[in-house]
Amino acid sequence: MIRQELVARQLEERIAAHFEVGRRLRVLDAGLGDGAQALRLARAGHQVTGLESDPARLAALDAALAEEPEGIRARFRTRAGGGQDTGAHFLPGTFDLVLGHDVLGRSRDPDSTLAGLARVLDTGGLLSLVLPNVAARAMRPGLAGDWAGARAALEAEPGESDRFLRLEALTSFLARIGVPMDRWYGVGALAVGDPAEPAEALAAAEALEAEERACRMDPYRRVAESLHLFGVRG
Question: End-to-end alpha-carbon separation of the chain, Å?
Answer without folding.
Answer: 34
